[in-house]
Amino acid sequence: PHPSTRPLPSCHATPVPSLPMTTPSKPSADAAALASGNPQPDSERRSRWYLEDLGGGLGQLSALHEVSHSTVSEFQASDIVDLGVFGRTLIIDQKIQSCGKDERVYHESLVHPALTIVNNPRKVFIGGGGEGATAREVLRHPSVNHLDMVDLDEKVVKWCAKLLPEYSAGAFDSPRMHTYYEDAKAFLEKSPHTYDVIIMDLCDPTDTGACYFLYALEFYTFLATKLNPGGAIVTQSGPASRLGCRDVFTRVHATMKRAFLGDEETRDRWTEMLGRPHVAGYRSFVRSFCDEWGYNMVTFGAVEDPVEFRVEEIDAELEARGIEGQLEYYDGLTHRGMFHMEKDVRKLMEEEKEIITEDNPAFIYNEAS
Fold first, then answer.
1. What is the model's pTM?
2. Exactly one of 93, 102, 153, 201 is catalytic; which is it?
3. Residues near 316 by Cβ (< 8 Å), separated by ≥ 6?
């Protein structure tokens, strides 16, 4: 989550003290207290709350146990806190990005469908991915021998590596991983590399953010030029439930279909370059995000549509890959559930006509939308 990574709703003061706003010159009182070795006593911590504005008149209130770190970079404000039931949590611009208790749902959902479907993935690109958990999941595939992660905000990445090491689980020290701090599109434009899988772990597109153009038709067609034949592109796509899916999720889905399946000539061109394209949307419920969370993926050259893979096919492939460690969320049965959307959301996906372009961007958490 950052200008090159994942999204967030906005938070405001609560009836009791909430997460402090921070500035580069004046760290929060909580961070200063913790640094001095005198955190607030449990009785005071239990009386404090963190309120996240989810948009549309909705919010989520969580007990705030302590603030381990607060800072402001040139790109965003970030906090590392303990939210009790959600565990150690990364918050950016007052939006939850990852919680220790359920981050594996999001990260396994984002990473493993694409890497499992692509045959023998060796080179992978992550746009965003600051806390290192997306990289952790990629590196569980032994076939991957080169991973580039590009995030705008070096401060966030380094603080997460220091204070949330369980998220990256050693990924930043892997000789297979290369981390860069710059704009993801600019990096790809000058890079000579092409990739088997491209993962966009971006913040949600907002009219005040830096990454809304990375959800546009022009960017998706550019990304495909950085793929190897038989590769895949996957992007996080915001809320995917009935109430929120039209903000970004269904529009990203329609935009990917236009980019790669638009007409017969388009399909034939991509088929000749990379293999037959399939575009699929899917989702998983991330409790700390308070919603079904959506992802959109295009695969090239796969034998079948990701929606049609059988449970035993996915399980057999995961076993054959020799995935390092035990996956907590993703397997064949979960794959089937993620890709079989509810009837009302499928209908909205089919009916979506709005195409995201650089001149017609999509913004989330916009009260006018």
1. 0.85
2. 201
3. none
